[in-house]
Structures are given as C-alpha cells and as structure tokens.
Amino acid sequence: MKKRLKQRRVCPRPVLCLGLFAALAFGQKVKAIPASSPLTQTTDAVPDTLETTDVFALHAQSTLVWQGHNTFNAPYSGPQSLKPAARGAETWDLTLFTGLHPWKGGEIWVNGEVDQGFGLGNTLGIAGFSSGEAYKLGRGTPYFRVQRAFFRQTFNFSGTTEKIPSDLNQFSIHQSSNRLVITAGKFSIPDLYDNNTYAHDPRSDFLNWSLIDTGTFDYAADSWGYTTGIATEWFQGRWTLRSGLFLMSVIPNSPDTDTSFKNFQIDEELEERHSIGSLPGKILLTAFNSHAHMGRFKDALLLSALTNTPASTADVRKMGNRPGVSMTLEQSLSANIAIFLRAGWADGHYESYEFTDIDRTLAGGASLDGAAWHRQNDRIGLAYVMNAASGLRKKYLNAGGTGLLVGDGILPHAGNEHIVEAYYDLAVSNIGHITLDYQWVGNPAYNMDRGPVSIFGGRVHSEF
C-alpha cells in the first residue's frame, strides 16, 4: 500500500471549491454540435445511417463532501485504526466528460478530473468505509488525472427500439432491446457491474462503500478505483449477460496496474429485469475471479509464529486465485418507494487485493422520493449493512496484520461490523443538490473493543 500524505483537515482552496460549484450549479448548459442527418426512426429496425444525435458532447460535475465523527471509545489503536478523537475531513472533485460520436453506435469518452482532499483517518479504520468520494490516496492540494478513456460500440439487432437520453458518458442514441455492447479502455468496473438503481452513486445516493457496491466485490482497480480492460454486454429481452477481462494492480492497493497481464481478473454478471404489475425490479448475479500475486492468511500466520513478528501477507505472496459471488435485488413497491438487497461472499483464505477487507456482507435498504410533500426531486434513503471477516482474517488481524483499510494491531474480541446510513438529498435546482448524511458504525474494523462511531456528513453536488 502506498504511503498516504499527511492529512489536512480543511480545503486549502475553499474559494476555488465553492466558486467552481457555483459555476456548475447556476451556469448555462453547453450546447453540443448536432449531427446533420435527421432521423425519424419509430419502428423496430434501426437504419444504417448516422443517428440524429450530437457529434460532440460536453458534461461536467462537481462534488464536495465533508464528514466528521464523534469522540468514541478506543482502549488501543493500531497502524490502520480510525483515531478516537473527534475530527473532520473533506473531499472535492471536478470532472469534465468529453465525448465523440464518430459513427452509428460508436462512442469515445475521456474524463479528466481534478481531485483534492482526504477521507476520514486517511481512508482507514472501517471496512465499510464512510465515503465513496474518498480515494485511498489523498492530497491536500488539487491534482489532475484522466480517470476514464474508453470506447463503446453498440450493435443493435432486433426487438423494440427506444431513444435513450444523453447523460454523463452517454450520447442520446437509439438502441434495440436485443443488442451487443462492447466497452474497451480505461474505466471503472462498477460503471457496468453491480449496478443498483438506489445504492450505487456516492454523488447522489448513499455514501458508504459497502452500500454503493457489494462489499465483497473485490473488483480490479488502481488506488482511485479505475482499471483497463474490455467488457461485452449481451442484451436479450429482459436478460443481460456481461463478461469482462481487466488488469489488476501490480501489488494490492497500488496506483499502477499490471500491464504484464500476470495479474488479471475475470468478471461475469447475469441481470434479469422484470415488472410486478407496473412496478419495475431486477436481479443481478455477479461473480469474479482474481488471478494475482497475493498472500494467504495461513502462510502469513505461520511465518509470524516462526519469526515472532507481526503477520504480513506482503511477505508470503505468490500466484493464486480469489473468487467471489454476490446477488443484488431491487424492487419498486410503489411509484415513490423502492427497496434493495445485497448479499456477497468472497474467499476468506486470501488477502483482499483492490477494494476493502470484507469476506461476507449483507445489506438492505429503502429509497423514497419527495412526491408526498411536493418535492419530487428530493430523496430519502435508509439502509443497513453487516460486514464480516473470515476466521483466518480475524486471526491475521489479531496477529498484528493489516489489510487494505483495517488493522488495529490486535483483535482479541472480533465481531461483525454493523453500519446504518440515512440521508436526505435536497434538490436546490435542476442541476444542483445538497445532501445531509448520517452513519452509525458498530464494531469498526470488526473490533468489539472500539466504537461505536457516529459520522455526520454533508454533500454538495451539481452536474449538467
């Protein structure tokens, strides 16, 4: 794991952060250049000519998140513990989404992003970490990275045809219900996989890592959550099959991906969409297998006992495979209320490689829009998640081992990590939102001797 820079508690560019948000929230939309060829397609067949859509696209988003926690009980702390004294931290990002629509069904997108800030405790101390806007690498001053640069090709076949609206990383194009979509380049695996309508985007719904994604889904990624690979999506009626091959990090939690192709991951997902009456729902079954140079807890514990030193998987890494599976269910109960459920398992013999230190997870929640009080674009969310570590991981942590996010030095009294999150998202304009968020964390990092922790948060987000 790369050493994190020293944490700073406040944004060193507050005027810059607020000014850029204001520009997004209250500025005018940028008009893209339209294609010259008209399209009046209304039948099932999609013509071979270029669709009526923009040739170029420009979108932007800005998100500022602040979180602070209370003073909590902690008789001891380790190298990756959340410190017990009350403190706060903030993150801010600004993303520019630029797209080119060169031919029918083809899209090229590049996302340049400016990031700044730190997660609480430098994004350490809780397996289900509190902010999906916080990366594992924090910096006190803004810096620029190209986070996505990918190509997408949609091949339409048969079935009903609809025109989807333009969005971030999406042109307004016609697509048929039966189609093949190929995505290749640099992007984030959750862009395509494990997509829950009500718990997947830390810029608009829940913030907690183990709610926006299944906690056991140890998807291939660099320290910012992005990777390079290729994925195919086969849509057939109410079914979709996704298959992907992606590069993993050089070592766990590394900012660099392994271009030698020695460390890679295969991801498969089956999606089923349905309606109960007129109420939509879907089920996702997701599986992954990581083939990488990784450490087994058993080997680390044996070496620790022989050398009388803290356990470390970094000392016993060799090529291995770590599989995992998960299920996601979402269902609308009415026009304004929906529920979701997630459950996941990952092999607990090996260290987590990319995401976080979770071997079992169960999460559920509900989402309610504000139509009942005449605030249709407002949303309330409430969810609970239980994260669990394998027996070997608990022994490893008790022997002084550290994972991606957790490690209190010892773990004499281990238990499951329990998290409750509630938020209210207030729409202040068509493109601007302010959110109040609260999280309660019991047994942080599986440690019954520490906590509970109350985390209060606020989010300011805008996009066009």
UniProtKB/TrEMBL annotation:
It holds the Pfam family OprB. Keywords: Signal. One of its GO terms (molecular function) is porin activity. One of its GO terms (biological process) is carbohydrate transport. GO terms for cellular component: membrane. Gene3D superfamilies: Carbohydrate-selective porin OprB. It comes from the Bacteria. Residues 1-27 form the signal peptide. Belongs to the OprB family. This is Carbohydrate porin. It comes from Neokomagataea tanensis.
